[in-house]
Amino acid sequence: MCGIVGLLVKKPELRQRLGELMLPMLIGMVERGPDSAGLAVFTRELPADRRKYSLYAPQWDYDWAGFEAGFIRRFGTEAELGARGNHAVLTCDETPEKVRPWLKQAFPALHLLSAGRVMDIYKDIGNPAQVAQRYEFGKFSGTHLVAHTRMATESAVTPDRAHPFTAGEDFCLVHNGSLSNPYQIRRKLEPLGITFETDNDTEAACRYFEWRMREGDDLETAIRSGFDELDGFYTFLMGTRDQLALVRDAFACKPAIVAETEDYVAISSEYRSLVGLPDVKNASVFEPVPEEIYLWRA
Amino acid sequence: MASVMKTSPVNPGTMTFDLASRPLRELNRFLHRELGQSGAGRVQVLNPDGAHNIAVGVDAPIDIEVHGHAGYYCAGMNKQARVRVQGNVGPGVAEGMVSGSVHVSGFASVAAGAAAHGGLLVIGGDTSLRCGISMKGIDIVVGGSVGDFSAFMAQAGRLVICGDAGDALGDSLYEAVIYIRGKVASFGADAHEEPMRDADYRAVAELLEKAGLGHDPKQFRRVASKRELYHWNADANQEY
Asked: Which residues of A fall within a CB distance of 8 Å from B72?
């Protein structure tokens, strides 16, 4: 079991309240996934030449000032660093092609959670209610978000195996279910130069879709090709800079429910996690059917 | 437990449980252990908010009304009770039901009426996949359409579908019978259409009436087992 949570607000005035509206949804899914939690929030887009990087450090009181100094030494440019304990978001002018190898070489203990112009990622092990409190999920603002509560079945309980998984820029995926051919996917992608960071089955799906989109597919076409390539049980919820996408496998063993009003689209594994949303009793509520691709634009 | 019960001034004998302020366990404990002494003939459940296991395992001829959406296994293992849900239900509604009835005004998620031995389940809207999977004698009436693999390995009972069916309808059917009004995306192994007889029209009319649906029984077709899977056929080369 795991819990998936997604929220997209349709009105600009609700963006400030995105995290606050989401928080009861995540808490409502604690029982489905009590061992880890994570969240990807899509915020105001940076200019084309700017990038931000979400980073995870092995200890809570990590020396982020030392990291920032190291960045300036290497790149000679200013950077903004917003730290929350063991997480930080680095905003700068440098491209992922430069930052990734430098990070790996100069700060090998840091884990790069995401790169892009829109998305921030926080994920950690522990009860999702505590994880949400640790990083103040309730204060986040933005257009849309994707969150997850994890009950591990396919790989160990560690922060890097918590969801969301990311690949490329501003793309993330959360998963309820289990894939039966993740190693087949890896064997297909690794010879193409795609590197995996964990042994988690969900990472294979995330990297597969991102690869398809880099090859020219739009998100919907990429997901459709997954019907033939990905074997197993899944409800996937994906976030891009301006979209949320939801899809369930042909057997639909893993639940999902959608509630939509004039103000928001809310997605969860179960209705009980939606009950704190404003006016949800009058929302249009439906269960997504298998192998149909649902897309919402922010 | 008297403190958790409220007798409605409008309807004496009605107990109200507001799950926004009471734990579900109090409702189910009341239904299992305290109903007899209470004299209640009707129980109202407010703010179900998608909770799991609402009114499971009831064994008493009582009316239970759930006002809102219920979660997993609502009215599972029901015996005798007449349960009405004004809303949608999650997976496994009325699974393992023995007798009584469950009416859902909205839609039902997967495995509605799974493995149920008896009673009547009515879904006003659509059901998701595997409706009536392994049913063992229950009658199910679906006002809308059913998802894939419905009535999979259904052993006994009747499934009436007023809308369409997804793929693999009636796969590996035993003696349960399906009546369908709309389109069938595909039949499962060993399921096929058979001619309707007078007894079939009477059965459909009776079930539609119980469900409160006004369709003409003449619009329904009968789907049942070819009974070819009862015996091992070594010449079939595993192709059915």
From this structure: 270
Domain count for chain A = 2
Comparing CA positions, the residue from B54, B36, B41 lying closest to residue B13 is: B41
Residues B155 and B223 in one domain: yes
**Which ranges constitute the DSSP H helices of chain B?**
24-29, 35-38, 198-211
What interhelical angle do A201-214 and A219-229 show, nearest 10?
130
Among the partner residues A255, A272, A273, nearest to B91 by beta-carbon distance: A255
Q: Is A253 a catalytic residue?
A: no
Instruction: Verify whether the Cβ–Cβ distance A270 to B50 is below 8 Å.
Output: yes
**Quick one: pLDDT at residue A78?**
83
Smallest CA–CA separation between A260 and chain B, in Å? Answer: 15
Q: Are residues A174 and A280 in the same domain?
A: yes
Q: Which of B49, B110, B129 sits opposite A275 (nearest CB)?
A: B49
The answer to whether the CB of B188 falls within 8 A of the CB of B170 is yes
Q: What's the pTM?
A: 0.94
Helices A96-106 and A64-75: crossing angle in degrees, nearest 10, is: 120
* In contact, A16 and A154? CB cutoff 8 Å: no
Give the pLDDT band (50/70/90) at residue B237: confident
